[in-house]
Amino acid sequence: MGRYIAKRLIQLVAITFILSIGVFMLVHLLPGDPTLAILGPNDTPTARHELLAQLGLNKSLPQQYWTWLTNVFSGNLGKSFLTGQTVANAVAVALPIDLELILFSQVMAIVVAVPLALLAARRPNRVLDRLATTTSFGMLSIPTFVVAVLLVLVFAVQFHAFPATGYVRFSTDPVQNVRSVILPSVALAFGSIAIYYRLLRADLIATMQEDYITMARSKGLSATYVLTRHALRPSSFTLLAGAGISIGSLFTGAFVVEVLFQLPGIGYQLVNAIFARDYLMVQGMALVAAVFYLVINFGVDFLLTVLDPRVRRA
Amino acid sequence: MPDGVTADVVAPTELLGADAGSESVIVAARATTAPGEAPRRTLGPLFWISLGWMSLLVLLAVLAPVLPIKSPTYQDYTAVNIGPSVHHLLGTDDLGRDLLSRIIWGSRVSLTIGFASVALGLLVGGSLGLLAGLRGGFGDTVLNAGSFVLLAFPPLLAILVIEAFWGRSLWKLTVMFAFIAAPQLFRVVRATTLSFADREFVTAARTMGARTGRILRREILPNVLPAAVSFALLGVAIAIIVEGSLAFLGLSIQLPVASLGNIVNAGVQNDNLQLNPYIALWPALYIFLLLTSLNLMADRLRGRYDVREIKL
Predict the structure, then answer these.
(1) CB contact B292 to A (< 8 Å)
(2) What's the rounded Cα separation, in Å, for the pair B224 and B190?
(3) ipTM, two decimals
Protein backbone atom coordinates (compact mmCIF):
# COMPACT_ATOMS: atom_id res chain seq x y z
CA MET A 1 0.00 0.00 0.00
CA GLY A 2 2.79 2.40 0.96
CA ARG A 3 4.59 1.62 -2.26
CA TYR A 4 1.47 2.23 -4.29
CA ILE A 5 0.84 5.60 -2.67
CA ALA A 6 4.47 6.60 -3.14
CA LYS A 7 4.20 5.67 -6.80
CA ARG A 8 1.04 7.73 -7.20
CA LEU A 9 2.66 10.65 -5.42
CA ILE A 10 5.61 10.59 -7.81
CA GLN A 11 3.12 10.43 -10.68
CA LEU A 12 1.27 13.43 -9.27
CA VAL A 13 4.47 15.49 -9.04
CA ALA A 14 5.56 14.46 -12.53
CA ILE A 15 2.20 15.29 -14.07
CA THR A 16 2.03 18.62 -12.24
CA PHE A 17 5.51 19.42 -13.59
CA ILE A 18 4.47 18.66 -17.17
CA LEU A 19 1.26 20.61 -16.64
CA SER A 20 3.20 23.63 -15.40
CA ILE A 21 5.35 23.58 -18.54
CA GLY A 22 2.20 23.42 -20.66
CA VAL A 23 0.58 26.32 -18.83
CA PHE A 24 3.80 28.32 -19.01
CA MET A 25 4.08 27.76 -22.76
CA LEU A 26 0.55 29.08 -23.32
CA VAL A 27 1.84 32.64 -23.50
CA HIS A 28 4.02 31.61 -26.43
CA LEU A 29 0.98 30.42 -28.37
CA LEU A 30 -0.04 34.06 -28.69
CA PRO A 31 0.49 35.33 -32.20
CA GLY A 32 3.17 38.03 -32.53
CA ASP A 33 4.68 39.89 -29.60
CA PRO A 34 3.08 38.49 -26.41
CA THR A 35 3.65 41.72 -24.49
CA LEU A 36 1.46 43.64 -26.93
CA ALA A 37 -1.37 41.12 -26.44
CA ILE A 38 -1.03 40.94 -22.67
CA LEU A 39 -0.78 44.66 -22.01
CA GLY A 40 -3.55 45.53 -24.43
CA PRO A 41 -4.58 49.15 -24.02
CA ASN A 42 -2.42 49.58 -20.89
CA ASP A 43 0.83 49.63 -22.82
CA THR A 44 2.70 52.21 -20.72
CA PRO A 45 6.49 52.14 -20.26
CA THR A 46 6.17 51.31 -16.54
CA ALA A 47 3.68 48.48 -17.13
CA ARG A 48 5.85 47.12 -19.91
CA HIS A 49 8.89 47.22 -17.68
CA GLU A 50 6.99 45.39 -14.91
CA LEU A 51 5.72 42.74 -17.32
CA LEU A 52 9.16 42.10 -18.79
CA ALA A 53 10.52 41.62 -15.29
CA GLN A 54 7.63 39.32 -14.38
CA LEU A 55 7.88 37.13 -17.47
CA GLY A 56 11.63 37.54 -18.00
CA LEU A 57 10.96 37.67 -21.71
CA ASN A 58 14.44 38.88 -22.59
CA LYS A 59 15.98 35.71 -21.17
CA SER A 60 16.15 32.17 -22.59
CA LEU A 61 13.11 29.91 -22.45
CA PRO A 62 14.31 27.67 -19.56
CA GLN A 63 15.27 30.79 -17.57
CA GLN A 64 11.81 32.28 -18.24
CA TYR A 65 10.23 29.09 -17.01
CA TRP A 66 12.36 29.16 -13.90
CA THR A 67 11.41 32.77 -13.16
CA TRP A 68 7.76 31.95 -13.64
CA LEU A 69 7.93 28.80 -11.53
CA THR A 70 9.66 30.46 -8.58
CA ASN A 71 7.04 33.19 -8.73
CA VAL A 72 4.25 30.61 -8.68
CA PHE A 73 5.79 28.81 -5.73
CA SER A 74 6.04 32.00 -3.73
CA GLY A 75 2.31 32.46 -4.26
CA ASN A 76 2.75 35.08 -6.94
CA LEU A 77 0.56 33.87 -9.80
CA GLY A 78 0.93 37.14 -11.61
CA LYS A 79 -1.20 40.23 -11.91
CA SER A 80 -3.77 41.30 -14.44
CA PHE A 81 -2.55 44.28 -16.40
CA LEU A 82 -6.11 45.14 -17.28
CA THR A 83 -7.71 45.31 -13.85
CA GLY A 84 -4.67 45.45 -11.56
CA GLN A 85 -6.07 42.55 -9.53
CA THR A 86 -3.62 39.81 -8.58
CA VAL A 87 -4.51 36.32 -9.79
CA ALA A 88 -4.06 34.89 -6.30
CA ASN A 89 -6.57 37.39 -4.96
CA ALA A 90 -9.10 36.60 -7.68
CA VAL A 91 -8.75 32.87 -7.00
CA ALA A 92 -9.18 33.35 -3.27
CA VAL A 93 -12.46 35.19 -3.85
CA ALA A 94 -13.76 32.77 -6.48
CA LEU A 95 -12.77 29.34 -5.22
CA PRO A 96 -15.16 29.17 -2.20
CA ILE A 97 -18.08 29.58 -4.61
CA ASP A 98 -16.99 26.56 -6.61
CA LEU A 99 -16.50 24.54 -3.46
CA GLU A 100 -19.98 25.45 -2.23
CA LEU A 101 -21.52 24.48 -5.57
CA ILE A 102 -19.68 21.19 -5.69
CA LEU A 103 -20.54 20.34 -2.09
CA PHE A 104 -24.24 21.10 -2.53
CA SER A 105 -24.57 19.24 -5.80
CA GLN A 106 -22.71 16.16 -4.59
CA VAL A 107 -24.76 15.88 -1.41
CA MET A 108 -27.93 16.15 -3.51
CA ALA A 109 -26.68 13.56 -5.99
CA ILE A 110 -25.80 11.03 -3.31
CA VAL A 111 -29.03 11.56 -1.37
CA VAL A 112 -31.01 10.78 -4.53
CA ALA A 113 -28.80 8.18 -6.22
CA VAL A 114 -27.96 5.84 -3.32
CA PRO A 115 -31.51 5.01 -2.14
CA LEU A 116 -32.62 4.70 -5.75
CA ALA A 117 -29.83 2.25 -6.55
CA LEU A 118 -30.65 0.20 -3.44
CA LEU A 119 -34.31 0.02 -4.44
CA ALA A 120 -33.43 -0.94 -8.00
CA ALA A 121 -30.88 -3.57 -6.98
CA ARG A 122 -33.36 -5.18 -4.59
CA ARG A 123 -35.38 -6.40 -7.54
CA PRO A 124 -33.27 -6.18 -10.68
CA ASN A 125 -35.11 -6.04 -13.99
CA ARG A 126 -38.45 -5.31 -12.36
CA VAL A 127 -40.54 -2.23 -13.04
CA LEU A 128 -38.74 0.19 -10.73
CA ASP A 129 -35.29 -0.93 -11.87
CA ARG A 130 -36.22 -0.71 -15.55
CA LEU A 131 -37.77 2.72 -15.08
CA ALA A 132 -34.88 4.19 -13.11
CA THR A 133 -32.25 2.66 -15.38
CA THR A 134 -33.90 3.92 -18.54
CA THR A 135 -34.41 7.38 -17.05
CA SER A 136 -30.78 7.55 -15.97
CA PHE A 137 -29.71 6.58 -19.48
CA GLY A 138 -31.72 9.49 -20.82
CA MET A 139 -30.29 11.81 -18.20
CA LEU A 140 -26.80 11.08 -19.50
CA SER A 141 -27.90 12.49 -22.83
CA ILE A 142 -28.73 15.94 -21.48
CA PRO A 143 -25.75 18.29 -21.20
CA THR A 144 -25.48 20.49 -18.12
CA PHE A 145 -26.15 23.66 -20.08
CA VAL A 146 -29.46 22.29 -21.32
CA VAL A 147 -30.51 21.15 -17.82
CA ALA A 148 -29.60 24.56 -16.44
CA VAL A 149 -31.64 26.39 -19.09
CA LEU A 150 -34.66 24.15 -18.49
CA LEU A 151 -34.42 24.73 -14.73
CA VAL A 152 -34.32 28.49 -15.24
CA LEU A 153 -37.27 28.26 -17.58
CA VAL A 154 -39.41 26.30 -15.13
CA PHE A 155 -38.37 27.51 -11.68
CA ALA A 156 -37.24 31.07 -12.31
CA VAL A 157 -39.26 32.24 -15.31
CA GLN A 158 -42.53 30.34 -14.81
CA PHE A 159 -42.82 29.98 -11.05
CA HIS A 160 -40.39 32.63 -9.75
CA ALA A 161 -39.41 30.16 -7.03
CA PHE A 162 -35.70 30.90 -7.24
CA PRO A 163 -33.62 33.78 -8.58
CA ALA A 164 -32.42 33.21 -12.15
CA THR A 165 -29.08 34.94 -11.66
CA GLY A 166 -26.87 36.44 -9.00
CA TYR A 167 -24.96 35.28 -5.97
CA VAL A 168 -25.32 36.34 -2.34
CA ARG A 169 -22.41 35.59 -0.03
CA PHE A 170 -23.11 33.35 2.92
CA SER A 171 -21.75 35.98 5.30
CA THR A 172 -24.18 38.56 3.90
CA ASP A 173 -27.37 36.53 4.09
CA PRO A 174 -27.33 32.75 4.65
CA VAL A 175 -30.90 32.19 3.43
CA GLN A 176 -30.44 34.15 0.21
CA ASN A 177 -27.11 32.42 -0.27
CA VAL A 178 -28.73 29.00 -0.25
CA ARG A 179 -31.54 30.21 -2.51
CA SER A 180 -29.01 31.54 -5.01
CA VAL A 181 -27.09 28.27 -5.30
CA ILE A 182 -30.00 25.81 -5.33
CA LEU A 183 -30.81 25.89 -9.04
CA PRO A 184 -27.15 25.78 -10.14
CA SER A 185 -26.50 22.89 -7.77
CA VAL A 186 -29.47 20.92 -9.07
CA ALA A 187 -28.23 21.48 -12.61
CA LEU A 188 -24.83 20.12 -11.63
CA ALA A 189 -26.28 17.26 -9.59
CA PHE A 190 -28.43 16.07 -12.50
CA GLY A 191 -25.62 14.33 -14.36
CA SER A 192 -24.02 13.04 -11.17
CA ILE A 193 -27.27 11.38 -10.10
CA ALA A 194 -27.38 9.35 -13.30
CA ILE A 195 -23.71 8.39 -13.04
CA TYR A 196 -23.79 7.42 -9.36
CA TYR A 197 -27.03 5.52 -9.73
CA ARG A 198 -25.74 3.46 -12.65
CA LEU A 199 -22.39 2.68 -11.07
CA LEU A 200 -23.85 1.71 -7.71
CA ARG A 201 -26.68 -0.34 -9.19
CA ALA A 202 -24.37 -2.38 -11.42
CA ASP A 203 -21.97 -2.98 -8.57
CA LEU A 204 -24.73 -3.86 -6.09
CA ILE A 205 -26.23 -6.43 -8.46
CA ALA A 206 -22.80 -7.99 -8.93
CA THR A 207 -22.13 -8.03 -5.20
CA MET A 208 -25.52 -9.63 -4.49
CA GLN A 209 -24.31 -12.69 -6.41
CA GLU A 210 -21.37 -13.28 -4.07
CA ASP A 211 -21.31 -16.35 -1.86
CA TYR A 212 -21.30 -14.45 1.41
CA ILE A 213 -24.54 -12.75 0.41
CA THR A 214 -26.17 -16.13 -0.29
CA MET A 215 -24.87 -17.21 3.10
CA ALA A 216 -26.38 -14.17 4.82
CA ARG A 217 -29.67 -14.66 3.02
CA SER A 218 -29.82 -18.36 3.95
CA LYS A 219 -29.30 -17.38 7.60
CA GLY A 220 -32.69 -15.76 7.20
CA LEU A 221 -31.65 -12.13 7.06
CA SER A 222 -34.04 -9.98 5.07
CA ALA A 223 -33.12 -8.77 1.60
CA THR A 224 -33.21 -5.16 2.74
CA TYR A 225 -30.90 -5.85 5.67
CA VAL A 226 -28.39 -7.73 3.53
CA LEU A 227 -28.50 -5.04 0.88
CA THR A 228 -27.81 -2.15 3.23
CA ARG A 229 -25.55 -3.87 5.74
CA HIS A 230 -23.61 -6.41 3.68
CA ALA A 231 -23.64 -5.29 0.07
CA LEU A 232 -23.58 -1.50 0.22
CA ARG A 233 -20.13 -1.08 1.73
CA PRO A 234 -18.12 -3.21 -0.70
CA SER A 235 -20.15 -1.80 -3.59
CA SER A 236 -19.59 1.80 -2.65
CA PHE A 237 -15.95 1.92 -3.69
CA THR A 238 -16.87 2.13 -7.33
CA LEU A 239 -19.16 4.98 -6.33
CA LEU A 240 -16.32 6.73 -4.55
CA ALA A 241 -14.02 6.32 -7.53
CA GLY A 242 -16.83 7.61 -9.75
CA ALA A 243 -17.35 10.53 -7.42
CA GLY A 244 -13.66 11.45 -7.60
CA ILE A 245 -13.67 11.52 -11.36
CA SER A 246 -17.01 13.25 -11.45
CA ILE A 247 -15.90 16.01 -9.07
CA GLY A 248 -13.11 16.81 -11.49
CA SER A 249 -15.43 17.08 -14.45
CA LEU A 250 -17.97 18.89 -12.28
CA PHE A 251 -15.40 21.58 -11.83
CA THR A 252 -15.54 22.19 -15.54
CA GLY A 253 -19.30 21.54 -15.72
CA ALA A 254 -19.56 24.28 -13.13
CA PHE A 255 -18.17 26.77 -15.67
CA VAL A 256 -21.31 26.68 -17.75
CA VAL A 257 -23.58 26.90 -14.73
CA GLU A 258 -21.62 29.78 -13.23
CA VAL A 259 -21.81 31.78 -16.42
CA LEU A 260 -25.54 31.17 -16.87
CA PHE A 261 -26.41 31.96 -13.25
CA GLN A 262 -23.76 34.69 -12.93
CA LEU A 263 -22.04 33.14 -9.94
CA PRO A 264 -18.56 34.69 -9.74
CA GLY A 265 -16.66 31.41 -9.30
CA ILE A 266 -13.48 30.30 -11.07
CA GLY A 267 -15.34 29.36 -14.26
CA TYR A 268 -17.13 32.69 -14.50
CA GLN A 269 -13.91 34.62 -13.85
CA LEU A 270 -11.99 32.48 -16.34
CA VAL A 271 -14.53 32.95 -19.12
CA ASN A 272 -14.66 36.70 -18.45
CA ALA A 273 -10.88 36.86 -18.51
CA ILE A 274 -10.89 35.03 -21.85
CA PHE A 275 -13.35 37.52 -23.31
CA ALA A 276 -11.35 40.45 -21.91
CA ARG A 277 -8.13 38.95 -23.35
CA ASP A 278 -6.68 39.09 -19.85
CA TYR A 279 -4.06 36.47 -20.66
CA LEU A 280 -2.16 36.37 -17.39
CA MET A 281 -5.41 35.95 -15.47
CA VAL A 282 -6.40 33.06 -17.77
CA GLN A 283 -3.01 31.45 -17.32
CA GLY A 284 -3.10 31.71 -13.51
CA MET A 285 -6.68 30.49 -13.21
CA ALA A 286 -5.98 27.57 -15.53
CA LEU A 287 -3.04 26.51 -13.43
CA VAL A 288 -5.05 26.63 -10.22
CA ALA A 289 -8.02 24.78 -11.71
CA ALA A 290 -5.89 22.03 -13.24
CA VAL A 291 -3.84 21.49 -10.09
CA PHE A 292 -7.05 21.39 -8.05
CA TYR A 293 -8.35 18.66 -10.36
CA LEU A 294 -5.14 16.63 -10.11
CA VAL A 295 -5.06 16.87 -6.33
CA ILE A 296 -8.68 15.78 -5.98
CA ASN A 297 -8.08 12.75 -8.18
CA PHE A 298 -5.04 11.88 -6.13
CA GLY A 299 -7.03 12.34 -2.91
CA VAL A 300 -9.71 9.93 -4.10
CA ASP A 301 -7.09 7.35 -5.08
CA PHE A 302 -5.54 7.73 -1.68
CA LEU A 303 -8.89 7.31 0.10
CA LEU A 304 -9.71 4.22 -1.93
CA THR A 305 -6.36 2.68 -1.13
CA VAL A 306 -6.95 3.21 2.55
CA LEU A 307 -10.56 2.04 2.51
CA ASP A 308 -10.69 -0.82 0.04
CA PRO A 309 -8.86 -3.96 1.20
CA ARG A 310 -8.78 -5.31 -2.37
CA VAL A 311 -6.64 -2.40 -3.53
CA ARG A 312 -4.63 -2.34 -0.32
CA ARG A 313 -3.46 -5.86 -0.96
CA ALA A 314 -2.90 -5.39 -4.67
CA MET B 1 -16.39 -4.20 -10.98
CA PRO B 2 -18.94 -3.12 -13.55
CA ASP B 3 -18.92 -4.87 -16.87
CA GLY B 4 -16.79 -4.13 -19.88
CA VAL B 5 -13.69 -3.75 -17.80
CA THR B 6 -10.62 -4.33 -19.86
CA ALA B 7 -8.18 -2.78 -17.44
CA ASP B 8 -4.73 -4.23 -17.47
CA VAL B 9 -3.43 -2.22 -14.55
CA VAL B 10 -5.59 -1.99 -11.46
CA ALA B 11 -5.30 1.48 -10.05
CA PRO B 12 -8.22 2.37 -7.78
CA THR B 13 -9.84 4.76 -10.20
CA GLU B 14 -9.36 2.04 -12.77
CA LEU B 15 -11.69 -0.24 -10.87
CA LEU B 16 -14.07 1.52 -13.19
CA GLY B 17 -12.31 0.30 -16.27
CA ALA B 18 -9.46 1.26 -18.50
CA ASP B 19 -11.47 4.22 -19.61
CA ALA B 20 -11.84 5.88 -16.22
CA GLY B 21 -9.34 8.57 -17.17
CA SER B 22 -11.39 11.70 -17.31
CA GLU B 23 -14.96 11.26 -18.39
CA SER B 24 -17.22 9.59 -15.89
CA VAL B 25 -20.02 9.69 -18.44
CA ILE B 26 -18.24 7.02 -20.42
CA VAL B 27 -17.93 4.80 -17.39
CA ALA B 28 -21.53 5.24 -16.39
CA ALA B 29 -22.81 4.72 -19.90
CA ARG B 30 -20.90 1.48 -19.94
CA ALA B 31 -22.29 0.30 -16.60
CA THR B 32 -25.50 -1.00 -18.13
CA THR B 33 -25.49 -4.74 -17.84
CA ALA B 34 -24.46 -6.25 -14.55
CA PRO B 35 -22.10 -9.21 -14.74
CA GLY B 36 -24.00 -12.46 -15.01
CA GLU B 37 -26.58 -11.05 -17.36
CA ALA B 38 -26.64 -12.87 -20.67
CA PRO B 39 -24.88 -11.16 -23.59
CA ARG B 40 -27.16 -9.86 -26.29
CA ARG B 41 -27.39 -11.92 -29.43
CA THR B 42 -28.63 -9.13 -31.69
CA LEU B 43 -28.22 -5.40 -31.80
CA GLY B 44 -31.96 -4.94 -31.26
CA PRO B 45 -34.45 -2.63 -32.97
CA LEU B 46 -33.43 0.42 -30.93
CA PHE B 47 -29.96 0.27 -32.44
CA TRP B 48 -31.35 0.38 -35.97
CA ILE B 49 -33.81 3.14 -35.13
CA SER B 50 -30.96 5.18 -33.64
CA LEU B 51 -28.77 4.49 -36.65
CA GLY B 52 -31.56 5.57 -38.99
CA TRP B 53 -32.16 8.73 -37.00
CA MET B 54 -28.44 9.57 -36.90
CA SER B 55 -28.19 9.03 -40.64
CA LEU B 56 -31.13 11.36 -41.18
CA LEU B 57 -29.53 14.08 -39.05
CA VAL B 58 -26.20 13.72 -40.83
CA LEU B 59 -27.92 13.77 -44.20
CA LEU B 60 -29.83 16.95 -43.31
CA ALA B 61 -26.60 18.59 -42.14
CA VAL B 62 -24.71 17.59 -45.29
CA LEU B 63 -27.52 18.65 -47.62
CA ALA B 64 -28.24 21.93 -45.79
CA PRO B 65 -27.10 24.14 -48.70
CA VAL B 66 -29.46 22.47 -51.18
CA LEU B 67 -32.44 21.92 -48.88
CA PRO B 68 -35.46 24.17 -49.45
CA ILE B 69 -34.92 25.98 -46.15
CA LYS B 70 -34.40 29.66 -45.50
CA SER B 71 -30.96 31.14 -44.89
CA PRO B 72 -30.00 30.70 -41.23
CA THR B 73 -28.96 34.34 -41.03
CA TYR B 74 -31.84 35.91 -42.98
CA GLN B 75 -33.76 38.20 -40.64
CA ASP B 76 -37.44 38.45 -41.46
CA TYR B 77 -38.70 41.39 -39.39
CA THR B 78 -42.27 40.70 -40.40
CA ALA B 79 -42.09 37.34 -38.63
CA VAL B 80 -40.32 37.85 -35.30
CA ASN B 81 -40.78 35.37 -32.47
CA ILE B 82 -43.58 33.44 -34.12
CA GLY B 83 -44.37 29.91 -33.00
CA PRO B 84 -44.32 26.80 -35.19
CA SER B 85 -46.31 27.40 -38.39
CA VAL B 86 -46.50 26.36 -42.03
CA HIS B 87 -43.90 28.85 -43.23
CA HIS B 88 -41.58 28.30 -40.29
CA LEU B 89 -41.95 24.71 -39.14
CA LEU B 90 -40.23 25.36 -35.81
CA GLY B 91 -40.97 29.10 -35.63
CA THR B 92 -38.53 32.00 -35.69
CA ASP B 93 -36.24 33.65 -33.17
CA ASP B 94 -36.21 37.21 -31.83
CA LEU B 95 -34.52 38.45 -35.01
CA GLY B 96 -36.96 36.67 -37.30
CA ARG B 97 -34.53 33.94 -38.29
CA ASP B 98 -35.97 30.53 -39.13
CA LEU B 99 -35.22 28.14 -36.27
CA LEU B 100 -35.36 24.93 -38.30
CA SER B 101 -32.78 26.31 -40.67
CA ARG B 102 -30.59 27.56 -37.81
CA ILE B 103 -30.67 24.16 -36.13
CA ILE B 104 -29.81 22.26 -39.30
CA TRP B 105 -26.96 24.67 -40.08
CA GLY B 106 -25.90 24.70 -36.43
CA SER B 107 -25.75 20.92 -36.34
CA ARG B 108 -23.12 21.04 -39.07
CA VAL B 109 -20.64 22.54 -36.62
CA SER B 110 -21.43 20.05 -33.83
CA LEU B 111 -21.45 17.02 -36.10
CA THR B 112 -18.29 18.02 -37.92
CA ILE B 113 -16.35 18.59 -34.73
CA GLY B 114 -17.87 15.51 -33.10
CA PHE B 115 -17.22 13.02 -35.86
CA ALA B 116 -14.08 14.48 -37.44
CA SER B 117 -12.21 14.89 -34.18
CA VAL B 118 -13.06 11.40 -32.94
CA ALA B 119 -12.20 9.87 -36.31
CA LEU B 120 -8.87 11.67 -36.22
CA GLY B 121 -8.33 10.60 -32.62
CA LEU B 122 -9.25 7.01 -33.48
CA LEU B 123 -6.86 7.00 -36.42
CA VAL B 124 -3.92 8.24 -34.36
CA GLY B 125 -4.75 6.85 -30.91
CA GLY B 126 -6.18 3.60 -32.26
CA SER B 127 -3.21 2.74 -34.49
CA LEU B 128 -0.78 3.52 -31.70
CA GLY B 129 -2.91 1.44 -29.31
CA LEU B 130 -2.85 -1.56 -31.64
CA LEU B 131 0.90 -1.38 -32.04
CA ALA B 132 1.58 -0.75 -28.36
CA GLY B 133 -0.74 -3.55 -27.31
CA LEU B 134 0.80 -6.10 -29.67
CA ARG B 135 4.44 -5.10 -29.47
CA GLY B 136 4.75 -3.97 -25.85
CA GLY B 137 8.23 -2.90 -24.81
CA PHE B 138 9.65 0.56 -24.29
CA GLY B 139 7.43 2.27 -26.85
CA ASP B 140 4.39 0.92 -25.08
CA THR B 141 5.62 2.19 -21.71
CA VAL B 142 6.24 5.68 -23.08
CA LEU B 143 2.91 5.89 -24.92
CA ASN B 144 1.06 4.55 -21.92
CA ALA B 145 2.62 7.13 -19.60
CA GLY B 146 1.90 9.83 -22.18
CA SER B 147 -1.75 8.88 -22.35
CA PHE B 148 -1.98 9.08 -18.57
CA VAL B 149 -0.54 12.58 -18.57
CA LEU B 150 -2.92 13.76 -21.29
CA LEU B 151 -5.90 12.21 -19.52
CA ALA B 152 -5.02 14.05 -16.34
CA PHE B 153 -6.54 17.29 -17.63
CA PRO B 154 -10.22 18.16 -17.63
CA PRO B 155 -11.15 18.42 -21.35
CA LEU B 156 -13.31 21.55 -21.29
CA LEU B 157 -10.71 23.46 -19.28
CA ALA B 158 -7.88 22.41 -21.59
CA ILE B 159 -9.74 23.44 -24.73
CA LEU B 160 -11.00 26.67 -23.19
CA VAL B 161 -7.53 27.76 -22.18
CA ILE B 162 -5.66 26.63 -25.27
CA GLU B 163 -8.09 28.34 -27.62
CA ALA B 164 -7.88 31.53 -25.57
CA PHE B 165 -4.24 31.80 -26.56
CA TRP B 166 -4.20 29.97 -29.87
CA GLY B 167 -7.38 31.32 -31.39
CA ARG B 168 -10.35 29.36 -32.67
CA SER B 169 -11.62 28.11 -35.98
CA LEU B 170 -13.31 24.92 -37.13
CA TRP B 171 -10.06 23.11 -37.87
CA LYS B 172 -8.30 24.30 -34.72
CA LEU B 173 -11.24 23.12 -32.62
CA THR B 174 -11.27 19.78 -34.43
CA VAL B 175 -7.56 19.30 -33.81
CA MET B 176 -7.94 20.19 -30.12
CA PHE B 177 -10.85 17.78 -29.69
CA ALA B 178 -8.93 15.04 -31.49
CA PHE B 179 -6.02 15.64 -29.19
CA ILE B 180 -8.31 15.10 -26.20
CA ALA B 181 -9.98 12.02 -27.70
CA ALA B 182 -6.81 10.27 -28.86
CA PRO B 183 -5.41 9.17 -25.47
CA GLN B 184 -8.81 7.80 -24.40
CA LEU B 185 -9.13 5.77 -27.58
CA PHE B 186 -5.50 4.71 -27.33
CA ARG B 187 -6.16 3.20 -23.92
CA VAL B 188 -9.27 1.32 -24.98
CA VAL B 189 -7.69 -0.09 -28.13
CA ARG B 190 -4.49 -0.98 -26.32
CA ALA B 191 -6.32 -2.75 -23.49
CA THR B 192 -8.52 -4.69 -25.91
CA THR B 193 -5.52 -5.59 -28.06
CA LEU B 194 -3.69 -6.84 -24.98
CA SER B 195 -6.58 -9.16 -24.19
CA PHE B 196 -6.27 -10.71 -27.65
CA ALA B 197 -2.50 -10.63 -28.14
CA ASP B 198 -1.94 -13.93 -26.35
CA ARG B 199 -4.99 -15.81 -27.60
CA GLU B 200 -4.52 -19.10 -29.41
CA PHE B 201 -5.52 -17.88 -32.86
CA VAL B 202 -2.92 -15.12 -32.72
CA THR B 203 -0.23 -17.55 -31.65
CA ALA B 204 -1.38 -19.90 -34.41
CA ALA B 205 -1.09 -17.17 -37.01
CA ARG B 206 2.34 -16.29 -35.74
CA THR B 207 3.61 -19.88 -35.83
CA MET B 208 2.36 -20.11 -39.39
CA GLY B 209 4.74 -17.27 -40.13
CA ALA B 210 2.33 -14.33 -40.43
CA ARG B 211 3.96 -10.91 -40.21
CA THR B 212 2.95 -8.34 -37.60
CA GLY B 213 1.08 -6.30 -40.20
CA ARG B 214 -1.03 -9.27 -41.21
CA ILE B 215 -1.70 -10.30 -37.63
CA LEU B 216 -2.84 -6.76 -36.85
CA ARG B 217 -5.10 -6.55 -39.88
CA ARG B 218 -6.54 -10.04 -40.02
CA GLU B 219 -6.48 -11.29 -36.44
CA ILE B 220 -6.52 -8.37 -34.01
CA LEU B 221 -8.33 -5.54 -35.81
CA PRO B 222 -11.62 -7.39 -36.48
CA ASN B 223 -11.84 -8.23 -32.78
CA VAL B 224 -10.86 -4.82 -31.51
CA LEU B 225 -12.97 -2.78 -33.91
CA PRO B 226 -16.43 -3.26 -32.30
CA ALA B 227 -15.15 -2.17 -28.88
CA ALA B 228 -13.30 0.75 -30.44
CA VAL B 229 -16.30 1.88 -32.48
CA SER B 230 -18.64 1.57 -29.50
CA PHE B 231 -16.25 3.66 -27.47
CA ALA B 232 -15.72 6.14 -30.29
CA LEU B 233 -19.49 6.74 -30.49
CA LEU B 234 -19.48 7.72 -26.81
CA GLY B 235 -16.52 9.93 -27.65
CA VAL B 236 -18.58 11.65 -30.34
CA ALA B 237 -21.36 12.22 -27.81
CA ILE B 238 -18.91 13.76 -25.36
CA ALA B 239 -17.30 15.92 -28.03
CA ILE B 240 -20.75 17.20 -28.97
CA ILE B 241 -21.51 18.00 -25.32
CA VAL B 242 -18.21 19.83 -24.86
CA GLU B 243 -18.57 21.72 -28.14
CA GLY B 244 -22.12 22.64 -27.14
CA SER B 245 -20.91 23.91 -23.78
CA LEU B 246 -18.19 25.97 -25.44
CA ALA B 247 -20.67 27.40 -27.91
CA PHE B 248 -23.05 28.12 -25.06
CA LEU B 249 -20.27 30.10 -23.39
CA GLY B 250 -19.73 31.89 -26.70
CA LEU B 251 -16.32 30.29 -27.09
CA SER B 252 -16.80 27.81 -29.91
CA ILE B 253 -17.02 28.85 -33.55
CA GLN B 254 -17.32 32.63 -34.09
CA LEU B 255 -20.76 34.23 -34.38
CA PRO B 256 -22.82 34.71 -36.52
CA VAL B 257 -22.25 31.07 -37.57
CA ALA B 258 -25.02 29.10 -35.91
CA SER B 259 -24.08 26.24 -33.61
CA LEU B 260 -26.43 24.24 -31.40
CA GLY B 261 -24.89 25.63 -28.21
CA ASN B 262 -25.04 29.25 -29.27
CA ILE B 263 -28.68 28.94 -30.37
CA VAL B 264 -29.53 27.74 -26.84
CA ASN B 265 -27.52 30.66 -25.51
CA ALA B 266 -29.39 33.11 -27.75
CA GLY B 267 -32.61 31.66 -26.35
CA VAL B 268 -31.52 32.67 -22.86
CA GLN B 269 -30.51 36.25 -23.67
CA ASN B 270 -32.76 39.32 -23.39
CA ASP B 271 -35.81 37.74 -21.70
CA ASN B 272 -36.12 35.36 -24.63
CA LEU B 273 -36.93 32.51 -22.24
CA GLN B 274 -39.99 34.48 -21.18
CA LEU B 275 -41.00 35.75 -24.60
CA ASN B 276 -40.18 32.76 -26.78
CA PRO B 277 -38.90 29.64 -25.03
CA TYR B 278 -38.88 27.77 -28.36
CA ILE B 279 -35.54 29.35 -29.29
CA ALA B 280 -33.84 27.42 -26.49
CA LEU B 281 -36.14 24.40 -26.43
CA TRP B 282 -35.81 23.21 -30.03
CA PRO B 283 -32.01 22.98 -30.08
CA ALA B 284 -32.14 21.44 -26.59
CA LEU B 285 -34.48 18.75 -27.87
CA TYR B 286 -32.28 18.20 -30.91
CA ILE B 287 -29.20 17.75 -28.71
CA PHE B 288 -31.07 15.33 -26.48
CA LEU B 289 -32.25 13.15 -29.36
CA LEU B 290 -28.82 13.27 -30.99
CA LEU B 291 -27.01 12.21 -27.83
CA THR B 292 -29.57 9.56 -26.90
CA SER B 293 -29.19 7.84 -30.24
CA LEU B 294 -25.38 8.00 -30.03
CA ASN B 295 -25.42 6.56 -26.50
CA LEU B 296 -27.91 3.87 -27.47
CA MET B 297 -25.86 2.80 -30.46
CA ALA B 298 -22.72 2.65 -28.37
CA ASP B 299 -24.52 0.70 -25.65
CA ARG B 300 -26.00 -1.88 -28.01
CA LEU B 301 -22.71 -2.35 -29.85
CA ARG B 302 -20.92 -2.90 -26.58
CA GLY B 303 -23.60 -5.26 -25.31
CA ARG B 304 -23.40 -7.30 -28.50
CA TYR B 305 -19.65 -7.40 -28.96
CA ASP B 306 -18.26 -6.96 -25.49
CA VAL B 307 -15.16 -9.07 -25.27
CA ARG B 308 -15.68 -10.02 -21.68
CA GLU B 309 -19.27 -11.10 -22.03
CA ILE B 310 -18.51 -13.22 -25.06
CA LYS B 311 -15.62 -14.89 -23.33
CA LEU B 312 -17.82 -15.93 -20.39
Answers:
(1) yes
(2) 9
(3) 0.81
